[in-house]
Amino acid sequence: MTKTILVALGGNAIKSADDEGTAAEQFANVYKASAELVKLIKAGYKLVVTHGNGPQAGNLLIQQEEGKKFVPDMPLDVVGAMTQGQLGYMFAQALGNLLRKEGIETPVAALVNQVLVSADDPDYLDPSKPVGPFFTEAEAAQLKIDKPDWLIKEVKPKTVEKRFRRVVASPKPKANVESDVIRRMIDAGIIVIASGGGGVPVIEGANGLEGTAAVIDKDIAGAKLAEIIGADVLLILTDVAHAKLNYGKPNETNVGTVSLSEMHTLAEGGDFLAGSMGPKVRACMKFVEKGGARAIITSLDHAYDAITGNFGTQIVQ
Ligand code: ADP
Ligand code: MG
Question: How many other CB atoms are there within 10 angstroms of residue 48's CB atom?
């Protein structure tokens, strides 16, 4: 049986830290990432692809702030959908072009995908996920009047002028709204790009689903999608080849292949930082807990070595 891999690509795999973020740069990065994915497809794996949208959503939110004098600014859920469209388009085009060059006719399609969260999620009580541009104290004060539903926090030291930022909740994904569509697309042999940026977060409202101003962690949402579609492998690709113990210290060491219970013990040490490696490790543990065969954290350029061997950080049954 063909094995299915849910690949989660980090925002860093699409926009490098020193990139300005031009369309040309993003396409170049998407092509680089897609070339690695083509190696997996050629090796006979079925892929479902998800991706981060942090840098793209950040830039789009700046455009909302700067452009709102001229045209209405869009809320966070719509910005999430817009970046899913942006990156979904880039990946569909790049992957499609690279596959056709190899003589592979597998169709690729991207989905604007909603992910259900609970309006009672505890993260709404103490939101901590910063989004969008930095503001000065005066701008922050004005925003409190203009946007009474925004929560603005001081996220940098007093010496920094632009030190305020909007923070939103990062609720847990409960279900993927289009899961049945995604399953049908996979069964039809389509390479699906879904749940981008963690998916557009929606809650169950009085009149059905409605968007909520939140950001779902893309690795946790990717693990949920991997579980829903019964993927064999969850492959999280980021900018480091391994999750590390004593991260950033002289005695730093790589985590290699470990069992679920070993990873639980290692995670208790607190070496996997919140907001970056922490959610990746949690996503991997969740996937294996739910019956997934293996979950991997490694860098983009090691994707093939990790899948065909045991490179990177791997959690196995
Ligand atoms: P992505 O965009 O791929 O989601 P993140 O920045 O969210 O990337 O996560 C990857 C980053 O996690 C690494 O660049 C590294 O700085 C950070 N990190 C935090 N803790 C660890 C750790 N224990 N081992 C390795 N990297 C870690
Ligand atoms: Mg991340």
Answer: 24
Task: Using most ligand atoms within 8 A of CB, pick from 9, 26, 215, 238 the residue to mutate for ligand 1.
Answer: 238
pTM above 0.90, yes or no: yes
- Out of 273, 280, 298, give the residue to mutate to test ligand 1, the one with the largest number of ligand atoms within 8 Å of its CB: 273
How far is 19 from 121, CA to CA, in rounded Å? 35
Give the three-class secondary structure for 135. Answer: strand
- pLDDT tens, position by position, 261-290: 999 999 999 999 998 999 999 999 999 999
Tokens of 11: 């925002």
197 pocket-lining for ligand 1 (C-beta < 6 Å): no
- Which tokens in the block code for residue 100? 């056709």
Which residue reads 């981008």 in tokens? 196
Question: In this structure, what token pair is assigned to residue 306?
Answer: 């990790």
Instruction: Return the number of other C-beta atoms located less than 10 Å from residue 32's C-beta.
Output: 15
Beta strands in the chain (DSSP E): 4-9, 46-51, 108-110, 114-116, 129-135, 151-154, 164-168, 175-176, 191-193, 200-205, 208-211, 233-238, 244-245, 253-254, 257-259, 294-299, 313-316
Q: Which atom of ligand 1 is nearest to the CA of 255?
A: 24
pLDDT for the residue 13: 67
Backbone angles phi and psi of 147, in degrees to 5: -130, 75
